[in-house]
Design a protein that fits this description.
Number of helices: 11
Bound molecules: uridine-5'-diphosphate, magnesium ion
Mean pLDDT: 86
Number of strands: 8
Strand content: 15-25%
Low-confidence stretches: none
Helix content: 40-55%
């Protein structure tokens, strides 16, 4: 049981302010698990530097020197949180049996890791960290998140409500996840698709204790739109419904004008004409934009660009 190697994957983008505390806290948890023989002694913390501009990478390297259990990889530029997670999992899965992903800012309670590992030993391959309160998030963030989950549910995308990217995965779950080769990553939608026995661990989400959120509104909206268009063709069906509705309205208009003409009423024509021109023009634009969204996706997918390029990989070196 204690022979399973745990690697905790921590994406970091300009996190110099939080890293010392993060290393301390996660290190404490990791060492505790090793001492209790719940994980192997060569378990690691794997920091993924997502092209930070601050001292994040030098700090990671300093900690590598200081603590045997700290290691890191460094991106050549900023690729984003989701890519950082996949990079960490890709590298870690070769040499670990258990992988846990957690944000560097420790908003997610590190103590839940113990419970996650217990659940793993109880036979679960995927253990979701689920927030049982969001009091520390702004009312705006809470409401938008809730609306997003309900919309995704209606669109038929299975998500675990109030869980983000804090979760444990077994080696085989990670390997299955990594078989999904898509470029547009929306991990919290992809992980449930992997299957395997799953469990949940509840915790209270805290404030970011230092530094600022690396997810401004613009990135959040981009992330949400990506989640919808990567997992659902509902918008296309919506447009289809809208198109049918408009056609019906057009037919009614046609019958109305025909009757008006036959009964000898003067049809001025201009109002209905100009209205339909505007309405149809608007509808066509909406349709075009939706189709464009999907065409854009195809465009990105067919390019088969690497999802990330790792500049340095200290983790793998440890095993050569
Ligand atoms: N992050 C990253 N690349 C980015 C943005 C964020 O690796 O481009 C990391 C960040 O360092 C943190 C995690 O993703 O560990 C979550 O970011 P943050 O805490 O800023 O998001 P929030 O909690 O505000 O949603
Ligand atoms: Mg955060």
């Amino acid at each position: 049981m204690g022979n399973d190697i745990l690697t905790v994957v921590v994406p970091c983008y300009n996190e110099e302010e939080v890293l010392p505390e993060t290393v301390k806290e996660l290190g404490g948890i990791l060492q505790g698990l090793v001492a209790e023989k719940k994980v192997a002694a060569n378990s690691k913390l794997l920091f993924v530097d997502d092209g930070s501009h601050d001292k994040t990478w030098p700090l990671i390297q300093k900690y590598e020197q200081e603590f045997g259990y700290v290691t890191g990889i460094k991106f050549s530029r900023n690729y984003g949180h989701q890519n950082a997670l996949v990079a960490g999992l890709t590298v870690a899965s070769k040499h670990s049996d258990i992988m846990i992903t957690i944000d560097a800012d420790l908003q997610d309670d590190v103590n839940a890791i113990n419970e996650m590992v217990d659940q793993y030993h109880a036979g679960y391959d995927v253990v979701y960290g689920v927030r049982n309160n969001r009091d520390t998030d702004s009312a705006f963030k809470r409401r938008t998140a809730l609306a997003f989950y309900s919309l995704m549910g209606k669109l038929g995308v299975e998500l675990v409500p109030n869980s983000a990217d804090y979760r444990l995965m077994s080696k085989r779950a990670v390997e299955a996840l990594l078989k999904m080769k898509e470029q547009n990553l929306f991990l919290r939608g992809m992980v449930p698709l992997v299957g395997f026995p799953t469990a949940k661990v509840y915790y209270a989400r805290k404030e970011r204790f230092a530094g600022e959120s690396k997810y401004p509104l613009k990135k959040m909206i981009k992330f949400a739109v990506n989640g919808i268009t990567s997992f659902s063709t509902a918008p296309i069906k919506l447009v289809m419904g809208l198109g049918l509705f408009i056609v019906m309205v057009g037919i009614i208009f046609f019958i109305y004008s025909l009757i008006s003409k036959l009964t000898g009423h003067v049809v001025t024509g201009w109002t209905s004409l100009i209205t339909s021109i505007w309405v149809l023009g608007g509808v066509q634009l909406i349709c075009l934009s939706v189709i464009g969204e999907y065409v854009g996706k195809v465009f990105i997918e067919v390019k088969h660009r690497p999802r990330f390029i790792i500049e340095q990989d200290d983790f793998s070196k440890l095993f050569n």
